[in-house]
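SAMPLE LOG
Freezer: B-3
Tube label: C17
Construct: single chain, 57 aa
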Amino acid sequence: MKTILTAACIAGLFCAAFAVVVDVVSNHLTMLQTIAIAALSGFLGALVGQLTVSRKR
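STRUCTURE (predicted):
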């Protein structure tokens, strides 16, 4: 359970940081681009979380 929570927290932090970047440039993006970036953020956040947890083992 600790591993799952750690991965989720890391993914959440990554997505929060990514959201700051998106907020800065979002005035220049279309809705479709914003949705694509949100999907990319979730994917990369989950990937970073899993990679970080798997390296700690």
